[in-house]
Amino acid sequence: MSSSLGIPPTTSKSDVVSLGSHSLCLYTAGPASPPGSRSPTVVIIQGLACSRLGWAAVIRQLSSFIRVCSYDRAGYGFSDASPLPPTAENIAAELNLLLQNAGVGGPWILVAHSWGGILSREFLELLARRKKEGDVVGLVLVDANQERTLQVLDWQDGNLWAVAKDLDWYEATGLNRENKLTEEEWEAYVKDEASSRHQLQAQKEQAEYRASFDVLAAKAQRDRNPPLMGDNPVCVVMGRNRNDYERLYKAGVEKGNGTEEEREVFREFLRTWDEKDEGLQREHLKLSTNGKMVIAEESGHNVHLTQPDIIVDAVKWVLGEYLSRDK
Where does the record place the AB hydrolase-1 domain (predicted)? Predict the structure, then answer.
């Protein structure tokens, strides 16, 4: 039954969509767009080795007023493995083909987290080459990676992980206590990420991770005039990544992990983390002449798990900017 505000009935479904060589599973929730409508669809692009199930709280809120698509990347969840390696460019091409074959046309608002920042930029590059960049009318970058992330804040530094060795990430960072998923959603999320199938695909993505930064940097997207996103709205949501790593450091030291030299490298990372991280996040604003940044002060890296409302508010801002110019 439609609401008094004229919002179409909310639906939720999953579809297995063939890409030719393999199939991906697409999940759609929220009000269906009327035929010929220019109502945008939110497309969620999760981070490195991350399950889409972690976005349940965000999707639950967004789907009350806008259509939302999420999907299992190749090799995860109910999606087939791809015959191609999971480079950022290949993942972007598969997402484009998935939306095309599923009949989910633009306009789109991309919501991208962590490595999803790189993936979303490759997706935008693909659309630009095909003269379809106008299909993306807004972008929400959630604690997202960019070209210079590993140059400035190399979170994969071996010294950090010597101190954080054998820690339970969910426990040490407090995610198991502070997430906003239901108990059932959290259990499903943890079970999915712990599965052997998920872990196998995660290793494949991790093998392609570092190279993806140089590949994107070579495209010089942020130097373009006009900007890649033109004047379309871009909202940058920054988490306090330092919060996670402070907790990891404390738990690792309590466990006796790391040499004093390794701990000192970790402490130096923490001393400069916020300043460097905020600088990196602000650079995302170069993608558009119409952008803003918000900081999720109570979150670490996984804002979608701990402060989903901030992401929902970011989408509402992007949507409002789009609708105000689409009149």
Answer: 42-314
Q: What pLDDT shows up at residue 130?
A: 87
pLDDT > 50? residue 281 = yes
Domains and CATH numbers, the chain: 10-153+183-243+284-325 (3.40.50.1820)
For residue 39, give the DSSP letter. -
User: For the chain, how big is the Rg over CA atoms in Å?
Assistant: 19
Q: Could you tell me which of 296, 280, 279, 292 has the C-alpha nearest to residue 240?
A: 296
Answer whether 0.90 is exceeded by the pTM.
Answer: yes
Contacts of 9 (CB under 8 A, 6+ apart): 1, 2, 31, 32
Between the alpha carbon of residue 55 and those of residues 13, 90, 134, 288, 303, the distances in Å are 16, 23, 26, 26, 10
Contact 66, 40 (CB under 8 A): yes
Q: Is the pLDDT of residue 78 over 80?
A: yes
- Please state, in angstroms and as integers, the Cα–Cα distance from residue 258 to each residue in 165, 171, 252, 262, following that order: 8, 19, 8, 6
